[in-house]
From TrEMBL:
Protein name: Sirohydrochlorin nickelochelatase
Organism: Candidatus Methanolliviera hydrocarbonicum
Keywords attached to this entry: Cobalamin biosynthesis, Cobalt, Lyase, Metal-binding
Keyword Amino-acid biosynthesis: no
PANTHER family: SIROHYDROCHLORIN FERROCHELATASE, CHLOROPLASTIC
One GO-annotated biological process of the protein: cobalamin biosynthetic process
MF terms in GO: lyase activity; metal ion binding
Length: 130
């Protein structure tokens, strides 16, 4: 993948350590595709979303793809995270100013309904009843 593109995985954040560990683990899985991967949390955990953006910019990226590690679209996906990113209401991409630099932001959809999710759920169900 282009070295100018960074990936920010966004998690909700929780006082339970496992949440942050899971987000960081998922983020590490993307290292084969993206040279520059960071995490950022909306609530309760560090680093915050803006910290993750800052770390990517320190590495010299000029474009940031943001993936919210959420299942569905709710207020966090539709309002809170875009506001933290500096995106206009309803926009999924744009240019933002951050620490005096301009950077392109691309905001991906959450996981939502996908047949692969059903397959994972079925595996978990079968495991539970076996």
């Amino acid at each position: 993948m282009d070295k100018n593109i960074g990936l920010l995985i966004v998690g909700h954040g929780s006082s339970l350590g496992y949440n942050g560990e899971l987000v960081r683990s998922v983020a590490s899985e993307f290292s084969d595709e993206f040279e520059n991967v960071e995490v950022g949390f909306l609530n309760s955990e560090e680093p915050k979303i803006k910290d993750g953006i800052g770390r990517l910019l320190e590495r010299g990226v000029s474009k940031i793809a943001v993936f919210p590690l959420f299942l569905s679209r709710g207020v966090h996906i539709l309002k809170d995270i875009p506001r933290e990113l500096g995106l206009e209401d309803g926009k999924r991409k744009g240019k933002i100013k951050f620490d005096g630099r301009e950077v392109d932001i691309f905001y991906a959809r959450p996981i939502e309904n996908d047949k692969r999710l059903t397959e994972i759920a079925l595996d978990r169900i079968k495991e539970a009843i076996s």
